[in-house]
């Protein structure tokens, strides 16, 4: 007599096989279980959907190629974003398979630069309940709103208040587009299981009149509240997340206003499992690019002079991480500060501006030297070896600026980190042309390869997607207590170590985007190892093989069979045996 067995847990994909109570039509209408034309004829007959699909049976690889061809036929970036969004709501596995197979082609439409346009028009795009909106009117009842989210096992939250979306300013509730876009990358590259990820928009109002007064704006049509009331609301949100999902739930802050971002990071960084990607993630990916550039030039960090154009979240975050890197290299903090210069919209950050608008974050980097306004004059005086743009001021790296950098350095290091593309300080073409091909260049937005002096140059994209998916995977896998700054230094070094001599030969300071999953996996390994050494991990007993432990945590986008193997022991005899090596992420 047949003996009923417990549902089999597939450790690779991280979800149980669908119960028999899920009908065929329910599967077709569910993004989690829909296989479309990949349902076999036998499965269609068993589920009662035979005849509801064309007779052809396709593999997931064939489906990926067909959908990629459809994507290429679309002409507008926004149309491509909507195509991918609709696919993710119809067939989750196929969506992630498509991102995995064509990462470099699809990433710009899921994340930067298209996500900037998406956020500007999000009130016209919102179709599916892709995340959770918690408004200022919910103050006092935030936990009740969190209870409405149907998934109880949330491990990673990406939260924004839309206060400073990319370089576009305050977009209010339209900032949900950035939360939805980036949380997708947690699964696509970090392999955090999709049902464990939650994008959230905290709608507290919008101070941009043109956005707030837009007739179809979907957020609260009010200005932002006073700081004390706003802080009480954020306090309630953080406490509610812990109450609903546990202390180890990762909370990534994204695109908050400058002052709010720094204030919340300092307030919560040791109380909760949280980080700010605009400050810390950008800092880590920027530092990784600098480490790679120094390997290319054969110099060390102590011989550099670094000038920032811009003194906001990204610049301060990278500068603070550089201080940690200098200290690890044996340089005292006071001495390290002498190597870092900042210029904001009002000129060089110097001590004589103390009565001006310098906040505490800028004050640390204020120099005891005469005030200089123009960027060109700053370069002449400081003679920096590294020029980093994080100002969202398009074209601020002029022809004269780039030529000055080239005149003072045999190999100038130039980073134009602002995005979207329209906000970039310069293009890759301008950087290579005006430095006569001498520079090592990285940008926040993607630029196509270009030919210069008979050589193909690949513009390196300093994309935060290299960093935060790996941080998220590692933090959630080991249930880390909190995330210290040293983790971002470790992540930067790990990312730089993945670059190969071939990457450097082509001018790349980062691995190809096709290796994003590999980068995330290796960064996660480093995070877990650090967490175990410092007793920040709450997972007990500690795994003896961290790589094998992590492999069992990751999500693998694949179709689940309708009939579990324990019910059909002979069904998989003719299928190719899956490689199960624990030494690589690709198996």
UniProtKB/TrEMBL annotation:
Keywords, comma-separated and alphabetical: Metal-binding, Oxidoreductase
Binding residue positions for a divalent metal cation: 254-255, 278
Binding site for (S)-malate: 164, 419, 463
Organism of provenance: Glossina pallidipes
Family recorded in the similarity comment: Belongs to the malic enzymes family.
Lineage: superkingdom: Eukaryota
GO annotation, biological process: malate metabolic process
Lineage: Eukaryota, Metazoa, Ecdysozoa, Arthropoda, Hexapoda
Active site as annotated: 111, 182
Cofactors (names): Mn(2+); Mg(2+)
Designated name of the protein: Malic enzyme
Presence of the UniProt keyword Cytoplasm in the record: no
Domain Malic enzyme N-terminal: residue ranges: 88-269
A molecular-function term among this protein's GO annotations: metal ion binding
Matching InterPro entries: Aminoacid_DH-like_N_sf (IPR046346), Malic_enzyme_CS (IPR015884), Malic_N_dom (IPR012301), Malic_N_dom_sf (IPR037062), Malic_NAD-bd (IPR012302), Malic_OxRdtase (IPR001891), NAD(P)-bd_dom_sf (IPR036291)
Cofactor binding note from Swiss-Prot or TrEMBL: Divalent metal cations. Prefers magnesium or manganese.
Domain Malic enzyme NAD-binding intervals: 279-532
Single GO cellular component term: mitochondrion
Keyword hit for Oxidoreductase: yes
């Amino acid at each position: 007599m047949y003996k009923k067995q417990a549902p089999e847990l597939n450790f690779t994909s991280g979800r149980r096989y669908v119960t028999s109570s899920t009908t065929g039509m329910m599967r077709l209408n569910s993004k989690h279980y829909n296989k479309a034309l990949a349902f076999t004829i036998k499965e269609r007959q068993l589920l009662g959907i035979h005849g509801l699909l064309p007779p052809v049976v396709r593999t997931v690889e064939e489906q990926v190629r067909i959908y990629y061809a459809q994507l290429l036929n679309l002409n507008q970036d926004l149309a491509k974003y909507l195509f991918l969004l609709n696919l993710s709501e119809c067939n989750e596995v196929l969506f992630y398979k498509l991102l995995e197979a064509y990462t470099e082609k699809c990433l710009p439409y899921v994340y930067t630069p298209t996500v900037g346009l998406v956020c500007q028009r999000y009130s016209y795009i919102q179709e599916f309940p892709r995340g959770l909106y918690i408004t200022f009117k919910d103050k006092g009842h935030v936990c009740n709103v969190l209870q409405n989210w149907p998934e109880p096992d949330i491990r990673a939250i990406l939260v924004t208040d839309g206060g400073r979306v990319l370089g576009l300013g305050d977009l209010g509730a339209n900032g949900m587009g950035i939360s939805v876009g980036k949380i997708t990358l947690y699964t696509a590259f970090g392999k955090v299981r999709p049902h464990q990820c939650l994008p959230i928009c905290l709608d507290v109002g919008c101070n941009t009149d043109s956005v707030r007064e837009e007739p179809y704006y979907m957020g609260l049509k009010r200005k932002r509240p006073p700081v004390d009331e706003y802080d009480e609301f954020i306090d309630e949100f953080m406490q509610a997340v812990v109450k609903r999902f546990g202390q180890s739930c990762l909370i990534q802050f994204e695109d908050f206003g400058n002052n709010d971002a720094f204030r919340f990071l300092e307030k919560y960084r040791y109380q909760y499992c949280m980080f700010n990607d605009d400050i810390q993630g950008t800092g880590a990916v920027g530092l990784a690019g600098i480490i790679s550039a120094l390997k290319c030039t054969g110099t060390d960090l102590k011989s550099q002079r670094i000038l920032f154009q811009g003194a906001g979240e990204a610049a301060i975050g990278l500068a603070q991480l550089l201080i940690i890197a200098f200290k690890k290299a044996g340089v005292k903090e006071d001495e390290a500060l002498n190597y870092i210069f900042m210029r904001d919209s009002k000129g060089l950050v110097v001590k004589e501006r103390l009565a001006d608008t310098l906040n505490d974050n800028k004050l640390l980097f204020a120099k005891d030297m005469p005030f200089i306004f123009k960027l060109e004059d700053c370069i002449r005086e400081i003679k920096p070896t590294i020029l980093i743009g994080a100002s969202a001021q398009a074209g601020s790296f002029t022809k004269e600026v780039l030529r000055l950098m080239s005149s003072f350095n045999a190999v100038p290091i130039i980073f134009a980190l602002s995005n979207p593309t329209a906000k970039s300080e310069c293009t890759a073409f301008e950087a290579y042309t005006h430095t006569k091909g001498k520079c090592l260049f990285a940008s926040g937005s993607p630029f196509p390869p270009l030919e210069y002096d008979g050589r193909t140059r690949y513009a390196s994209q300093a994309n935060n997607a290299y960093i935060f998916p790996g941080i998220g995977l590692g933090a959630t896998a080991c249930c880390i207590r909190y995330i210290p700054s040293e983790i971002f230094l470790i992540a930067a070094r790990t990312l730089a170590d993945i670059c190969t001599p071939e990457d450097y030969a082509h001018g790349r300071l980062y691995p190809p985007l096709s290796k994003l999953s590999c980068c995330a996996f290796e960064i996660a390994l480093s995070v877990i190892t650090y967490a175990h050494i410092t007793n920040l991990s709450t997972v007990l007993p500690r795994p003896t093989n961290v790589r094998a432990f992590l492999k069992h945590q990751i999500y693998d986008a694949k179709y689940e069979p309708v009939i579990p193997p324990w019910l059909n022991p002979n069904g998989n005899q003719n299928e190719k045996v899956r490689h199960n090596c624990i030494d690589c992420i690709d198996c």
